[in-house]
Write a structure and sequence with these properties.
The structure holds two protein chains of two kinds.
Chain A lengths: L1 E4 L9 E7 L6 E2 L4 E7 L2 E6 L4 E6 L6 E3 L3 E6 L10 H10 L17 H20 L10 H19 L2 E9 L1 H12 L9 H13 L7 E4 L2 E4 L5 E3 L1 E3 L3 E3 L2 E2 L7 H17 L2 E2 H5 L3 E5 L18 E5 L3 E7 L2 E15 L5 H15 L6
Parallel strand pairs in A: 5-16, 12-17, 17-18
Antiparallel strand pairs in A: 1-8, 2-4, 2-7, 3-6, 4-5, 6-8, 9-20, 10-11, 12-15, 13-14, 18-20, 19-20
Helix pairs in contact in A: 1-2, 5-6, 5-8
Chain B lengths: L1 H11 L9 E4 H15 L3 E5 L15 H5 L4 E3 L4 H13 L3 E8 H4 L3 H8 L2 H4 L9 E6 L14 H4 L6 E3 L4 H6 L1 H6 L4 E6 L6 E4 L12 E4 L4 E5 L4 H13 L4 E5 L2 E3 L3 H11 L2 E8 L4 H13 L8 E5 L8 H7 L3 H12 L2
Parallel strand pairs in B: 2-3, 2-4, 4-5, 5-7, 6-7, 10-11, 10-13, 13-14
Antiparallel strand pairs in B: 1-8, 6-12, 9-11
Classes of the chains: A alpha+beta, B alpha/beta.
Amino acid sequence: MAEFRMPSLGADMDNGRVVEWRIKPGDIVHRGDIVVEVETDKGTFEVESPIDGAVSAIAVQQGTKVPVGTVLATLGEPTAAEPRASPAARQLAAQSNIALATVRGTGPGGVITIQDVQRAAAAATPTKIAVAAEPAELEAAVDARAAMRRAIAAAVTRSKREIPHYYLSTDVDLSRAAEWITSQNVRRPVTERLLPSALLIKAVASALTRYRDLNGFWVDGAFRPGIGIHVGMAISLRGGGLIAPAIHDADRLTVDQMMLALRDVVARARGGRLRGAEMTDATITVTSLGDQGVTTVIGVIYPPQVAIVGLGKISERAWAADGKVSARLTVTATLAADHRVTNGHYGGLFLAEVDRLLQSPETL
Amino acid sequence: MTATSRVETIVTAPPAPEPSRIRLSYREAMRQALRDALRTDPRVFLMGEDVGRYGGCYAVSKGLLEEFGPERIRDTPLSESAFVGAGIGAALGGMRPIVEIMTVNFSLLALDQIVNSAATMLHMSGGQFAVPLVIRMTTGAGRQLAAQHSHSLEGWYAHIPGIKVLAPATVEDARGMLAPALADPDPVIIFEHASLYALEADVPPSVEPVSIDRAAVRRSGKDVTLIAYGGTVGKALEAATQLATLGVNAEVLDLRVLRPLDSETILTSVRRTRRAVIIDEGWRSGSLSAEVSARIMEGAFYELDAPVGRVCSAEVPMPYARHLEQAALPQVATIVQSVRALIGE
């Protein structure tokens, strides 16, 4: 019997509210299936099952707020076949959140009767009460906006208190990248056109394949490399919120796929439909404030990550090259990195790699 | 017939202090009801094969010819179609005929009159002509009368809109159903199970009309509802007694009215007990038990804790040999066995 617990959807999360269950007792779930929607100070997220199994019981009812780590549901071994149960037994099991797979049948041929479910329900009751009693004190009405602010405050305070940042900055010539994007977009309807950010993030992800020490976490006094390159995209939400859902395996996406992923994740972030794994899996963050006219973004690392890449406004500026000054489309890329993990030299090589990749966009 | 004369004495001497209950057989109860109807309503008359001089083939109408005369206790030729048709005509003409058919097997000869005329007249006449006819007939096996006198075809009649079908299973119902049946403006068929005529019970001395709309719980229980009617009610009660010794508390429901079925009472009971076994002397295929089972499924599916069980007659023409006839019929032992199988013991 495995326990499915309230996940920590980020370092700044203390508790979460079960908004909606997507499973019910008896359901067979597979690893990665969305099982529950959880609301945190940062919004509502869809949380996936970490394992395969059959749902035995739901321990926390919808609408209840519980601390991280609280058992939300129990999962058992998936049974080969649905157990046979009478309609009355099924009805009571559904009403009492009892999984028939976990009930021993005493009827003819082992069929589960209503009495069997009544026994199982009686046995299950104490656990439910224990869990349900907890959240009362947590229920104090919280202004969602203030809560989000507090969560951000906690994260950045921890970051600035614990992480010795170093900062690097590189101006990147985007002429070729822009030409390539234009050539791609000529043939496309408006809805499928590429935006430069897709190319930029893809370049960051590809560069990380060679500079893996920027991709991962500082945990318990040591660097733990990320498994996969999952780029967290910092997204501003209405009302001052900030969120950085992961684009999974960003290095393996084509630019087109990256564009789709970006559109999808931004839309879902604003619609409050992000998944739990997207909140926990990011191995690095990219923050782009170019739309606000910012030329240089010097980021604050989101703990326990070890680096954040900042992207400024893409704009024409006077660019000296080959003995001439010309107007070029450029962007300023910055890196804020954890000095406990890497040195400036390493960070500089990484930014140079991003630059190099953006000079041959067709290979990305 | 000493019991009969005792009843007559009591009924004809009202000022004497009445005992609170009298012992009466099902046959006597039916006779008392007939006499009561003949006395209180001059439009009532009894007609059928051997109902007069012979006193009825099951002796129900014994003594009535002497008391009421040949105008009102009429022997008929052996032609079910003719005398049932005559009964329909009399009903249309303002009389309140009671037609006795010897057995349900023979009633098939009158099926056209009953189904095509009696049951449809009100509809075909645009509501102008009701047929206030009562038909009594014997049904069921158990008396070694073989395959042409022993079948339970009441389920066929329960299929027909336009008629009401009653199955008195107790002495009280045998006596009390006739008056409301006569008062009903439409055709009513009363099925008397042949094995019940000798059944005795203590009942109040005077005829008390009973409901002809509702089923009745004959024994309360919580573990399973045994649904029976007519000749199987007694077997269901006996099975319930045996089941009680096994720790199974069975409720026994007597349908009483086969058409229209009292679904509400059936469902109320089954929703509580969550299990049902229907005991029907009819054959299982296309039977009344099938209809009751379907209604339980429609109305109480989610409350059921076991599939609906049925104990019916073997699907053979009813055998003559006693041991074979008994083997073909629902029995207490098979009811008990069926319940135990449902509960998983």
